[in-house]
Design brief:
SIR2/SIRT2 'Small Domain'; elongated; alpha/beta; 2 domains; binds 2'-O-acetyl adenosine-5-diphosphoribose; two-stranded antiparallel ribbon; 6-stranded parallel beta sheet
């Protein structure tokens, strides 16, 4: 660990009136939830992300996509927040007006660690929603569940899908607005465990920097947005986040 760099970032965090944190899949890696790319290993390695995480892929093979999400939902339910989630939650509880947490993660580990107000850019994997607006302009009702199949509306056949943002879909506009506002307002922007490959979330670091924030990246590997950062701390979220925040 680069101790002087760590202490320099701690000092920035201690002074900052507004801190915006952006988390990605690496935040939950040490809780046992595979990152998006790692989730496509093993049995799933022969599929491409567009097939498993897009509306087109779901329409083409609802059962396959439902199965993949069912496995990921089990993983999320079995996981526990790690020391990094807990350190963020403790800081948020101590300084309720200073921290805004923005996450790309579809798990609920920040919430279970105790952060109630989280801006969720990519939705919630544990939520169900309907694939289409009800064609009859009413509420769809799920019919009897068939094994390993997404539930369908008993009247119109509409399918249930997971409440996540898929490739090619818009982010929830209110969440994106709130995230951009928090990035612009922040004095320190802390980006934890994201590859920086997926937009528009990846643009938040640049937005913050242009508005004058000190940008810090925590990641054991290089990311696509390292060049946006004033400080890059190489290491894992569960180790570095407590080292940065504990006691502040
Ligand atoms: P990725 O899977 O693209 O990247 C995970 C990042 O976490 C990588 O940069 C790893 O180096 C880093 N990482 C791994 N272990 C870590 C650890 N213990 N501590 C800290 N960092 C670690 O995940 P995201 O950047 O979150 O979108 O991907 C963004 C989006 O791509 C996801 O939200 C998902 C996916 O498509 C949607 O579902 C729309």
């Amino acid at each position: 660990m680069d101790e002087p760099a760590l202490q320099a970032v701690r000092a920035r965090l201690a002074d900052a009136r507004k801190v915006c944190v952006l988390t990605g899949a690496g935040m939950s890696a040490e809780s046992g939830i595979p990152t998006f790319r790692d989730a496509l290993t093993g049995l799933w390695s022969r599929f491409d992300p567009m097939q498993l995480a897009s509306e087109e892929g779901f329409r083409a093979d609802p059962r396959l996509v439902w199965d993949w999400y069912a496995e990921r939902r089990l993983g999320v339910r079995a996981a526990q927040p790690n020391a990094g989630h807990m350190a963020l939650a403790t800081f948020a509880a101590r300084h309720p007006t200073r921290l805004t947490l923005v996450t790309q993660n579809v798990d609920d580990l920040h919430q279970r660690a105790g952060i109630v107000e989280t801006i969720r850019l990519h939705g919630d994997i544990l939520q169900d929603c309907w694939l289409n607006a009800c064609p009859r302009g009413r509420h769809c009702e799920p019919g009897a569940a068939a094994p390993a199949q997404p539930p369908r509306c008993s009247e119109c056949g509409n399918l249930v899908r997971p409440g996540v943002v898929w490739f090619g879909e818009m982010l929830p506009p209110a969440a994106l607005d709130a995230a951009q506002h928090a990035a612009r307002e922040s004095e320190v922007m802390l980006v934890i465990g994201t590859s920086g490959a997926v937009w528009p979330a990846a643009g938040l670091a640049q937005l913050a920097r242009r508005a004058g924030a000190y940008v810090v990246i925590v990641n054991p590997e290089p990311s696509e947005i390292d060049a946006q950062a004033h400080a890059v701390l190489r290491g894992s979220a569960a180790t570095l986040v407590p080292a940065l925040l504990d006691g502040l």
